[in-house]
Design a protein that fits this description.
It holds the Pfam family HTH_24. Keywords: Kinase, Transferase. One of its GO terms (molecular function) is kinase activity. InterPro entries: ATPase_NBD (IPR043129), ROK (IPR000600), ROK_cs (IPR049874), WH-like_DNA-bd_sf (IPR036388), WH_DNA-bd_sf (IPR036390). This protein is of the alpha/beta class. The protein folds into 3 domains: about 10-90, Arc Repressor Mutant, subunit A; about 95-210 and about 385-395, Nucleotidyltransferase, domain 5, CATH 3.30.420.40; about 220-380, ATPase, nucleotide binding domain (Nucleotidyltransferase, domain 5, 2-Layer Sandwich), CATH 3.30.420. The chain has 14 helices and 15 strands. A hairpin with a 2-residue loop joins strand 12 (about 230-240) and strand 13. Helix 1 (about 25-35) crosses helix 14. The radius of gyration is 23 Å and the shape is globular.
């Protein structure tokens, strides 16, 4: 079974963004081979790249000088001198990861290969505004770094996932339904006052999609990641890559409006519209309905705990939520024909009741051809999927070959 706290398997792999391709055999591509194959010898790199031994040697020397690779420990019982091996220098710094939902954020400090060094969870309302939210996150990272004997200068990159529409190029949230004050707030500028490193900003469901695809379903070319928590969102993998849509808005399944005749007047959604899937079946909506039924719940966590006790009202509401979610999901399945639908998020902890309702709607409403081989499965990494995806996206950016080439060139002249 996959250890959800071991994210080192998330690296490396094909990037989830399109980058310029450098000339074959440049330092960046040699580093990509070292990262993807673990410890490698000079001869193995010569075989895989087709470059001369002298050229590979020069690339390795340049990467060592830039602090990106180091000599691997040699363990051999055979006679003769074993060949030198090289590995990615994963201990050369740290990554800061913040995977946020509407009411809380999971924080992690990892090494450069994605292994989690420390993690914690912080209760923090995303609607408190960007300045307060970011300051709280930065403040929480400080003690974690200190405990590990690290400082801000050791941070090589920051990955941040947020529950709203994200312009990943600009690193901003755009017109979010629930994130008061976040619209086009300069997140990177705020963090630059504390850390001199690249910052990757991603939608929360997209981050989960990347993490689940890379670690649990790497050979699947088409996948839909459904996040069911306080809100509802989706991340799409198409052709093996993250699909964002024209403006980064793909996957906003929670705000698809549906008509449920037996439900009467459509409920009001937090986005201002009526009848959104999220207004019927999001975690906040389930809490609303439980409270209306007299249950003393105040959070999605409380609702999930109540469901776990077998409470009939909570169980009925969750199965109903699954059927309504399945209405929107069935349309997505017919339209996109994914091989796998992965379901994660806080509500997915009650999968026995939730999945039954979802499957009921999907298999009743979707095209038979689209469901012939469809798998609907829980997230393999549970609540670490978003952290894993952020590590992957961040390292794809940090170690993109042309970026590595520039770093090596700068190191050579310094």
């Amino acid at each position: 079974m996959t250890d959800p706290t071991d994210l080192s398997g998330a690296l490396p792999g094909p990037p989830y963004e399109s980058f310029p391709t450098p000339p074959q055999g440049n330092p960046g591509q040699v580093l990509a081979l070292v990262r993807s194959h673990g410890d490698v010898t000079r001869a193995e790199l010569v075989e895989r790249t087709g470059l001369s031994r002298a050229t590979v040697g020069a690339r390795l020397e340049a990467l060592q000088q830039a602090g990106l690779i180091t000599a691997a420990e040699i363990t051999s019982t055979s006679r003769g001198r074993p060949p030198s091996r090289f590995r990615f220098r994963h201990e050369g710094g740290a990554l800061l990861i913040a995977d946020s939902g509407a009411t809380g954020v999971r924080l992690a400090v990892t090494d450069l290969a994605g292994a989690v060094l420390d993690q914690s969870r912080l209760t923090l309302d995303i609607a408190s505004g960007p300045e307060h939210w970011l300051s709280e996150v930065v403040g929480a990272f400080g003690p974690m770094l200190t405990e590990l004997g690290l400082g801000s200068s050791d941070v090589r990159g920051i990955g941040l996932a947020l529950p709203g529409p994200v312009d990943s190029v600009a690193g901003m949230v755009v017109s979010p339904p629930i994130m008061t004050g976040w619209d086009r707030y300069p997140i990177r500028s705020h963090l630059a006052a504390h850390f001199a490193c690249p910052v990757v900003v991603e939608n929360d469901a997209n981050a989960m999609a990347i993490g689940e695809h890379r670690l649990a379903h790497p050979h699947v070319s088409s996948m839909l990641m459904l996040k069911l928590a306080t809100g509802i969102g989706a991340g799409l993998i198409a052709g093996g890559q993250l699909y964002r849509g024209a403006d980064g808005a793909a996957g906003d399944i929670g705000h698809i409006q549906v008509v449920v005749p037996e439900e009467g007047e459509p409920p009001q959604c937090r986005c201002g519209n009526q009848g959104c899937i999220e207004a019927y079946a999001g975690g906040w909506a389930i809490v609303r309905d439980l409270r209306a039924a007299g249950e003393p719940v105040t959070s999605v966590h409380d609702a999930v705990q109540l469901i776990a006790t077998g409470d009939p009202t909570a169980t009925r509401l969750l199965r109903r939520a699954g059927r309504i979610i399945g209405i929107a999901l069935s349309d997505a399945v017919s339209l996109l024909n994914p091989e796998v639908v992965v379901i994660g998020g806080e509500l997915a902890a009650a999968e026995n009741h939730l999945f039954a309702g979802i499957r009921e709607s999907v298999y009743a409403r979707s095209l038979p051809l689209a469901t012939r081989r469809l798998q609907i499965v829980p997230a393999a990494q549970r609540d670490m999927a978003g952290v894993s995806g952020l590590v992957t996206a961040l390292c794809d950016h940090l170690y993109e070959p042309t970026r590595v080439d520039a770093l090596v060139a700068a190191s050579a002249t310094s």
